[in-house]
Design brief:
Largest sheet: 6 strands, parallel
Shape: globular
Strand content: 15-25%
Distance between the termini: 35 Å
Radius of gyration: 17 Å
Helix content: 25-40%
Number of domains: 1
CATH topology: Rossmann fold
Number of strands: 8
CATH architecture: 3-Layer(aba) Sandwich
CATH class: Alpha Beta
CATH superfamily: Isochorismatase-like
Strand order of the largest sheet: 4-3-2-5-6-7
Structural class: alpha/beta
Length: 231
Amino acid sequence: MTNLKFDKEITALILIDPYNDFISEGGKLWDRIKAVAEANDCIAHMLQLLTAARTTGMRVFYAMHHRYRPGDYDTWKYAAPIQKGARSRKTFEYGTWGGEFRAEFAPQPGDIVAEEHWCSSGFANTDLDMLLKRHGIQRLIVAGLVAHTCVESTVRYAVELGYDVTLVRDATADYSDEFMHAAFVNLPNYASAIVTTQDVTDTPLEAAAHSSRACPPWAIRMDESHWRSRP
């Protein structure tokens, strides 16, 4: 169906922020993303990608947002509006159900959880880049929440660091269709391919495919305390 190819030795799945507060009924942010997430079956697709990665032996990395703790930001000279919002809502509060992984997405032995990011990018002020490089990873398959903030920021930062990025468009969601549109107008400038979950799961893994690839015909292009398990 496609000519997409992944070498599992240099490719990893990056899952961004699968917290209960985001993707579980009763979570603090669930009502805000529910409409878009249900429309594209985002959660089921995220889980499908995770299951496929583990089944095939592809590395799984988690890029998780900072979990609120009392006193966060209190002494900061400057805090971004998104951080002020997290403080007022106590988003992903440490030690609470909302600040835990949704059960199906909990890390398993061999999965790697990077340090939590304080704003949007999974790379900024974390050890994600170091962990990827130590495991020989050069190509990323990205999924998670939300499209116009943490997903876009992580994809863009990854490209700045030299990674080749494939973004899975039906394994992310946002607060509105307008926010999703804004993200996906811009993201094709950074992601080498924007695909569906089925595109990824239908793609065979190769043992050693280190040559660079041209953009495949199905790619969408528009000119318009931390958890960690390390084997």
